[in-house]
Amino acid sequence: MDFLIVGGLVVTARGEFRADVAVDGGKVSAVGEGLPRTPEAVVLDASGSYVLPGVIDAHTHFALRSRGTVTADDFASGMRSAACGGVTCVIDFADQVAGTSMPVAARARIDEAAAVASVDFALHMTVTNVPTDIEAEATALAGMGVGAIKLFTTYRAAGYLLDDADFLAVCKAARNAGLLVTVHAEDNDTVEALESALRAQGRTSPAHHAESRPPEAEATAIRKVAASLGALGIPVYFVHVSSAAGLEAVREARRLGHTVYVETCPHYLLLTSERYSGDMAREFVMTPPLREAADVAALWDAVLGGEIDVIATDHCAFTREQKALGETCFDVLPGIPGVETLLPLVHHEGVVRRGMSLRDMVRMLSYNPARLFGLFPRKGTIAPGSDADIVIFDPGCIRTISGSELHSRSGYTPYEGMRVQGWPRMAMVRGKVVCRNDQFVGAPGWGRFVAAAPSGRTAEEG
User: Fold this and answer.
1) How far apart are CA 390 and CA 256, in angstroms?
2) What pLDDT score was predicted for residue 462?
């Protein structure tokens, strides 16, 4: 036995219980009351704390090349930030490369991350054009452990948007290969029309970002995609759903019997479009944009009502200097940091302030990401045989969030000055402590690629 965690409240998606957790060889070897101590085991006292499955951030963008630059966080710094927030596994993306097959591009991305990874990681493939043999390439992706594909319904000018026939061809190939289809849903025609109108009116500052990509664009895209894939029996996972209108489109699809999974993000649960009226508006530009207070309330109702499957960050960090590069709301680099604050924010705003159960917090942050993306039961739970990805979380620790104290290279946080109750004391990845008392103690190269098991993915309450 390497570690024995004692005195804590163990929380899984199935419930909460007092138990010790034994760790041996990177795995959970036993869970139970009064486990025997062995001379070689390091005893970790979790008294007064929760013992949680490591968080899986199902949506990060580390080392993302965009518009002639690259995100502030590469895999080394991004994973360091993740570890210090109790995130023990991230799911990032591989982009297609001209003249290269998708499996080759995915392998290059895996190698890039693995060289410096301090937490574990899985991978989705972003598809922006259709290979000649999409079926074979999709099958090869699944065979190497890629768990999902990502498609866009917007960004035509950037080359991300597929036409309808190609979109469906990719989705069918993904279904046949056992890959989950994930979609960034904003209707391109709506967005392009509004951009033209706003440019003509000279309303192009970051203050106009929210109106350039309204909730109706999100809802329209969700309805269209859910209807077309639902008719084919293809499940779909919508990333970063941001609005009440988007939620209603999801509900309509579910009422029709379509399998639709929903992800939202802390910034849509905590921040509003009022941020675009301030001097620091650029720091809050992301797509979809921040919404109105009514949308925030609707999203919380959906979270507490069990309609949201996953809360992830869409961590896409740029420095203030990078955010200053664009002249208009259409060319400011979109994205914000967030991986390190995911768990504390969801705990404070959900559990402390709104009465969310701890098991539901774990369900959305760990269990469902693992189930949906083929990582369960290796990830997403604390049970004999699972990876020893464990967080000791102090629910009474009071912190004021400050970008200067976080570990992202962005240098700022959109949650600056927010006071939260609850913070990780320790995070462990496969039996190795990677963060202790807010100090990163992990090692580059420890993190591994986690191959997803294809097909059969579900989000369940456990």
Assistant:
1) 39
2) 39
Kindly report, residue by residue over 167-178, the tens digit of the pLDDT: 999 999 999 999
Same domain assignment for residues 322 and 285: yes
Give yes or no for a contact between 124 and 92, defined as CB atoms under 8 angstroms apart: yes
**69 close to 104: Cβ distance less than 8 angstroms:** no
Q: Which two tokens stand for residue 69?
A: 């630059």
Residues 67 and 45 occupy one common structural domain:
no
| Helix (H) or strand (E) segment spanning residue 30 | strand 27-32
| pLDDT number for residue 459 | 64
| Band of residue 278 on the pLDDT scale cut at 50, 70, 90 | confident
Q: Are residues 427 and 314 in the same domain?
A: no
Average pLDDT for 120-145? 97
Residues 296 and 429 reside in one and the same domain: no
Q: Is the pLDDT of residue 457 over 70?
A: no
- Same domain for 203 and 289, yes or no, is yes
- CA distance linking residue 124 with residue 408, whole number of Å: 22
Note the pLDDT of residue 454.
72
For 343-372, the three-class secondary structure string (H helix, E strand, C coil) is HHHHHHHHHHHHCCCHHHHHHHHHHHHHHH
State what percent of residues in the chain have pLDDT above 90.
Answer: 96
> Residue 458: what pLDDT?
59
Is 44 found in the same domain as 71? no
H or E element at residue 2: none
User: What are the CA-CA distances from residue 128 to residues 94, 154, 157, 163, 239 (Å)?
Assistant: 11, 11, 12, 10, 16
pLDDT at 97: 87
Cβ distance 442 to 118 under 8 Å?
yes
Q: Find how far residue 191's CA is from the centre of its chain.
A: 24
The confidence score (pLDDT) of residue 455 equals 59
Cα separation of the two ends of the chain? 28
Residue 235 and residue 455: Cα distance in Å, rounded?
A: 11
> CA 322 → CA 71, 261, 317, distances in Å?
9, 33, 10
Q: What is the pTM of this model?
A: 0.97
Q: Residue 362: which domain range?
A: 54-372
What radius of gyration do the chain's Cα atoms show? 21
Q: Please report the DSSP string for 104-161 in residue order.
A: HHHHHHHHHHHTT-SSEEEEEEE-SS--TTHHHHHHHHHHTT--EEEEESS-TTTT-B
Give φ, ψ of 344 to 5 degrees: -60, -40
